[in-house]
Specification:
Blueprint: H1 18-90, H2 99-106
């Protein structure tokens, strides 16, 4: 019978000849290599899971921060509209303003809220 042709044959055993010791040594190395690879794959999967969890938490935190910033932008926009209305209502009552000082209030671009507005204080 050819060696290795029937794995179910219980009479087949490897002899302790020097040639088989080399095969046994190769088998041990193969098993060790597989075990080492299994551990490395397990660690890699664990790192991948930890990274995914970390990214998920970061995403949630950024979404919360984004919502808070949008809320603040909305509040500031409403405040700017309110202050603009207050200023518009006050302008006709303020006798100390001339055409030149209006530019101080609005700058070159009338209605641009992102610019610094310098408002002179006049006694009422």
């Amino acid at each position: 019978m050819a060696q290795g042709s029937d794995n179910n044959d219980s009479s087949y055993t490897k002899s302790p000849s020097p040639g088989n010791r080399q095969g046994s040594s190769d088998d041990v190395r193969k098993v060790m290599r597989r075990e080492k690879n299994r551990i490395a794959a397990q660690k890699s999967r664990m790192r991948q899971t930890q990274k995914a969890d970390s990214l998920h938490l970061e995403s949630e935190n950024l979404e919360k921060e984004n919502a808070a910033l949008r809320k603040e932008v909305k509040r500031l926009t409403e405040e700017a509209k309110y202050l603009s209305t207050v200023l518009s209502n006050h302008e006709p009552l303020c006798t100390g303003l001339s055409g030149a000082s209006t530019e101080l209030l609005y700058g070159a671009h009338h209605g641009a809220f992102h610019q610094h507005i310098s408002v002179p204080h006049y006694p009422l």
